[in-house]
Design goal:
The complex is a heterodimer. By secondary structure, chain A is of the alpha/beta class. Chain A has 3 domains: 245 residues, 2-enoyl-CoA Hydratase, Chain A, domain 1, CATH 3.90.226.10; 191 residues, Alpha-Beta Complex (2-enoyl-CoA Hydratase, Chain A, domain 1); 34 residues, no CATH class. Helices cover 40% and strands 17% of the residues of chain A. In chain A, the strands form 3 sheets. In chain A, strands 10, 11, 12, 13, 14, 15, 16 and 17 form an 8-stranded mixed sheet that branches. In chain A, helix 4 runs parallel beside helix 5, helix 13 runs parallel beside helix 15 and helix 17 packs across helix 19. The longest helix of chain A has 17 residues. Chain B has a domain of 69 residues: Beta Barrel (OB fold (Dihydrolipoamide Acetyltransferase, E2P)). Chain B has 2 helices and 10 strands; from the N terminus they run αββαββββββββ. Classes of the chains: A alpha/beta, B mainly beta. At the A-B interface, helix 14 and helix 17 of A face strand 1, strand 2 and helix 2 of B.
Chain lengths: 515, 108
């Protein structure tokens, strides 16, 4: 036996040990919690045999509280590169079996190293979070680690897509890395995210709340909006990520992966989806199914602020972002949450060269003291900002109601839409007929003998005059009034024409969106 | 979609009633309460450490009412009003939430 082969044996043995992470017992515990190990997660997510690991031999240099006598394989995090459907990605996964996945300086440095790689290689970075938090024994070194991660999240923002999976606890400062990334994925019963945990809340407030009630997957997917995708199992979560990776570009200088154009497959008839009575609800996702390639739609933030629908689909083989008012939920109003949701999505699409298709049917902003006090002005302004700022192709279809501030906000011509089309059912007006008639004809209604009859008559008069697309069309604010059946063909035409679209903005360091 | 029809509720936006679903968050929203003059509320969750006035006392605007420990700080709660203490709603050692009524003052 040569020396080299002895060395190789030695190396293999070392790697075998390190690959076991926290050891058999800890792995068993991880599995008992219903979780995969960090390594299995990476292997499940990436293409077969594509994973290359780095920094396996990194060690912490903590010297206090007995840390000097402890060895943490990989320092509690696995980092590397691989591919998803052939597209390169950088990836890291915190290993809960090693010191609870706690983050020390070198654990963090492994993460920032792979993030730096991603930024140089111009490919997405995927982070799998499963950590008890800062490694307290390392003191401020752990905090430094978090800070260096946040800084890179910010620098990489809008350059490469950043994806976070919350597959275990993610508490305290640790939550801010996912919060700075583009898409956060959570899994039922596994994900737990909060700034201050149930123990602190119990001590300070005397209130009992479970981790699940405080910051479980469902809470973040439905109430806070911190999570963009919600899955029942880790496997389902990985499938969602693979789907997303197929739809978005590797970086802000690339186009999205293109596939062959397919016709919609839905049995729905686009003429039948929207009820003619503007007060009746329907599911706007049925319209998306009628116009998107293969009737496929990857919905983002499905459970949160469901009064607006956002997500990715394809038109003619190319990725587009859909933003659509959902008449079925809260009548499709804009409110603080739905404005935040739409604005961030629009900015993602704009950063990554994805054309935006807006489907409009909205009665206005949500009335309420709570909304006004929560800052619906500031939040609503984000939608105006995001649409105005975006230079990707922007196309609007007005399906039905387009009232008041909502008409302006939903990618109107006035905010720089490239094309605006309206269905014959569109009502483009300063407000709903009832509200408008009450104001314009207040005197007539008050003076009438039969006030209700007079109001009804005036509402009818207003509907006949203004509740249609032709007043706006006469001013050139919409480009054409089209039949619903023509929608897909027209969108494909408009997108084809927009391929070389260029639009410039004044030079500036950065704008100041109303965060 | 089949069962949705029964779940659709009337929902008014600018004088028009729409049929639509309501979200959990919308239904759970906190109703707004107008600010009552004379109420001294906690601004943070915390613990009452010391109470320096009693019911019936006359207090000046700016006078120290109690010490409230919150976020690792001993906060001095001073009276925003001149008047008479009509109610003390907390005891020393009470752990209270944000916006909890601590002291009520009959404003002069």
């Amino acid at each position: 036996m040569t020396d080299l082969s002895k060395d190789i044996q030695e190396l293999r043995k070392k790697k075998e040990v390190l690959k076991k992470g926290g050891g058999e017992a800890a792995i068993e515990k991880q599995i008992a919690m219903g979780k995969l190990t960090a390594r299995d997660r990476i292997l499940s997510l990436l293409d077969k045999d594509s994973f290359q690991e780095y920094d396996m031999f990194v060690k912490h240099d903590g010297r206090d509280f007995g840390l000097d006598k402890k060895d943490f394989p990989g320092d509690g995090v696995i980092t590397g590169t691989g591919t998803i459907y052939g597209a390169p990605v950088c990836i890291y996964a915190q290993d809960f079996t090693v010191a609870g996945g706690s983050l020390g300086l070198h654990h963090a440095r492994k993460i920032t190293k792979i993030m730096d790689h991603a930024l140089k290689l111009k490919c997405p970075v995927i982070g799998i979070n499963d950590s008890g938090g800062a490694r307290i024994q390392e003191g401020v070194g752990a905090l430094a680690g978090y800070g260096e991660i946040f800084y890179r999240n910010t620098i990489a923002s809008g350059v490469i897509p950043q994806i976070s999976l919350i597959l275990g606890p993610c508490a305290g400062g640790a939550v801010y890395s996912p919060a700075l990334t583009d898409f956060v994925f959570v899994v039922e019963n596994i994900s737990k995210m909060f700034i201050t945990g149930p123990n602190v809340i119990k001590t300070v407030l005397g209130e009992d709340v479970s981790m699940e009630e405080l910051g479980g997957a469902r809470v973040h997917a439905e109430i806070t909006g911190n999570a963009h995708f919600y899955a029942k199992t880790e496997q389902e979560c990985f499938e969602q990520i693979k789907q997303l990776i197929r739809l978005i570009p590797a970086n802000n200088a690339e186009a999205s992966p293109r596939i062959e154009k397919k016709e919609p497959t839905t049995a729905l008839n686009i003429d039948d989806v929207v009820p003619s009575d503007p007060k009746q609800p329907y599911d706007v996702r049925d319209i998306i199914k009628c116009i998107a390639d293969n009737s496929e739609f990857l919905e983002v933030h499905e459970l949160w602020a469901a009064n607006i629908v956002i997500g990715f689909g394809r038109m003619g083989g190319e990725t587009v972002g859909f933003v659509a008012n959902q008449a079925m939920v809260l009548a499709g109003v804009l409110d603080c949450d739905s404005a935040d949701k739409a604005a961030r999505f629009i900015r993602f699409c704009d950063s990554f060269n994805i054309p935006i298709i807006t489907l409009e049917d909205m009665p206005g902003y949500l009335p309420g003291i709570d909304q006004e006090h929560a800052g619906v002005i500031r939040h609503g302004a984000k939608v105006l900002y995001a649409y105005s700022e975006a230079t990707v192709p922007k196309i609007t279809i007005i399906l039905r109601k387009a009232y008041g501030g909502g008409y302006i906000a939903m990618n109107s011509r006035h905010l720089g839409a490239d094309f605006v089309f309206a269905w014959p059912s569109a009502e483009i007006a300063v407000m709903g007929p009832e509200g408008a008639a009450n104001i314009i004809f207040r005197k007539e209604i008050e003076e009438a003998e039969d006030k209700n009859a007079m109001r009804d008559e005036k509402v009818k008069e207003y509907i006949e005059k203004f509740a249609n697309p032709y007043v706006a069309a006469a001013k050139g604010f919409i480009d054409s009034v089209i039949e619903p059946k023509e929608t897909r063909a027209l969108l494909l035409h408009a997108l084809k024409l927009s391929v070389l679209k260029e639009e410039y903005r004044p030079r500036k360091k950065h704008g100041l969106p109303p965060f | 979609m089949e069962n949705k029809n029964t779940e659709y509720k009337d929902f008014v936006v600018t004088a028009r009633k729409y049929k639509t679903l309501l979200t959990k968050k919308y239904l759970d929203r906190k109703p707004w309460k107008p600010l009552q003059s004379g109420e001294v509320l906690s601004h943070l969750p915390g613990t009452v450490m010391e109470i320096l006035v009693k019911e019936g006392d006359s207090v000046e605007k700016g006078q120290l009412l109690c010490i409230h420990e919150a976020m690792k700080m001993l906060n001095r709660i001073v009276s925003p009003y001149t008047g008479v203490v009509s109610k003390i709603n907390v005891k020393v050692g009470d752990r209270i939430a944000k916006d909890h009524l601590m002291v009520k003052i009959e404003v002069e």
